[in-house]
C-alpha cells in the first residue's frame, strides 16, 4: 500500500469522495471562528481546504506522513502550518488546538489508539476530537464495486473490510480506548456521479492505496478480468456511487 504518489493521483481517486465529506466533518466537530484546528492525515488537503475557507489559513495546521501530499497542501494553502508527521507522534505541544480532526485516516494509522491519544493530547481540555472512516466493513464504502469484483477473482483478498474503524461502532470504541469523553457516533453519506465507467475506473490504475496496490499486483489478464467484472456491475452511464462513512467525536 502506498500514498507516496502524486497529489493529483490521489485527488482523482479518493479525493473526489473526500471533498464531499469535509463540510460534514467540520460541522460534526462544531468548530467555531476564533478556534485553532489541526487536520491529522490531511492528504492533499480536502479537509484543510474546507477549514481554510471557513476560518482562514492562520487558524489551521495540518500533518501527513506523505511528502508529496505535504508539499501539495503547502502549495495549495499558503499560511497553513503543514508538517510531515505520523499521527502517533504529533509535533505540537499539549493543548495546542481547540479541535483536532482526522478524515479517512484512522484506519491507516499503524496504532489507531496511539494516534487518537495523541490527537487528544494536542487538544485543549473539553476540545473536540473527531474522525471518520469509510464503511468498508459493512460494504457501503465508495470502493465496494471494485472490492466485490476483486473478491470474485480472489476470495482471500484483503479488501479493507477489517481495517480499524471500518465497521459500525468500532471508531467510537477506538476513541473511548484513547481516553476521550462524551463520545458520540454517527454516519455521514456522500453521493458522487461518474459520467462514464472509464472515468470511474482510470483512477484505480494510479496505484493509490490498497485498491491501487492490489490492481498493480495483478498480471495483464487478471487486470482485464477485474476491469470487465467491474464494468458489468455498474449501472448504465452516467451512474452514481453513494458511500457511507462512520464518524465519531469525543472531548479531550
TrEMBL record:
Keywords (A to Z) from UniProt: Methyltransferase, Transferase
Domain spans labelled Methyltransferase type: 38-130
InterPro entries: Diverse_substrate_MTase (IPR051052), Methyltransf_11 (IPR013216), SAM-dependent_MTases_sf (IPR029063)
Lineage: Bacteria, Pseudomonadati, Pseudomonadota, Betaproteobacteria, Burkholderiales
Protein name: Methyltransferase family protein
CDD domains reported in the protein's UniProt record: AdoMet_MTases (cd02440)
Organism from which the protein derives: Rivibacter subsaxonicus
Keyword set includes Ribonucleoprotein: no
Domain of life per record: Bacteria
A GO molecular-function annotation: S-adenosylmethionine-dependent methyltransferase activity
Pfam families assigned to the protein according to its UniProt record, in alphabetical order: Methyltransf_11
SUPFAM superfamilies for this protein: S-adenosyl-L-methionine-dependent methyltransferases
Biological processes annotated in GO: methylation
UniProt keyword Methyltransferase present: yes
Family as reported in the entry's similarity comment: Belongs to the methyltransferase superfamily.
Amino acid at each position: 500500500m502506498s500514498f507516496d504518489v502524486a497529489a493529483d493521483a490521489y485527488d482523482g481517486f479518493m479525493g473526489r469522495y473526500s471533498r464531499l465529506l469535509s463540510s460534514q466533518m467540520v460541522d460534526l466537530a462544531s468548530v467555531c471562528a476564533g478556534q485553532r484546528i489541526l487536520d491529522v492525515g490531511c492528504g492533499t488537503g480536502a479537509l484543510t481546504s474546507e477549514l481554510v475557507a471557513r476560518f482562514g489559513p492562520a487558524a489551521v495546521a495540518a500533518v501527513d506522513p506523505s511528502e508529496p501530499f505535504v508539499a501539495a497542501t503547502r502549495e495549495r494553502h499558503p499560511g497553513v502550518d503543514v508538517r510531515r508527521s505520523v499521527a502517533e507522534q504529533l509535533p505540537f505541544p499539549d493543548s495546542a488546538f481547540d479541535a483536532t480532526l482526522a478524515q479517512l485516516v484512522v484506519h491507516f494509522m499503524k496504532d489507531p489508539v496511539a494516534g487518537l491519544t495523541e490527537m487528544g493530547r494536542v487538544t485543549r481540555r473539553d476540545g473536540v476530537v473527531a474522525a471518520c472512516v469509510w464503511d468498508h466493513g459493512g460494504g457501503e464504502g465508495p470502493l465496494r464495486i471494485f472490492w466485490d469484483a476483486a473478491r470474485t477473482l480472489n476470495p482471500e483478498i484483503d479488501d479493507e473490510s477489517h481495517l480499524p474503524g471500518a465497521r459500525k461502532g468500532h471508531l467510537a470504541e477506538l476513541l473511548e480506548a484513547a481516553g476521550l469523553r462524551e463520545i458520540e457516533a454517527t454516519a455521514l453519506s456522500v453521493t458522487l456521479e461518474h459520467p462514464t465507467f472509464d472515468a470511474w475506473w482510470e483512477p484505480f490504475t494510479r496505484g493509490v492505496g490498497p485498491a491501487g496496490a492490489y490492481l498493480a499486483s495483478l498480471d495483464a489478464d487478471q487486470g482485464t478480468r477485474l476491469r470487465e467484472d467491474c464494468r458489468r456491475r455498474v449501472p448504465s452511464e452516467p451512474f452514481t456511487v453513494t458511500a457511507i462513512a462512520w464518524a465519531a467525536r469525543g472531548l479531550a
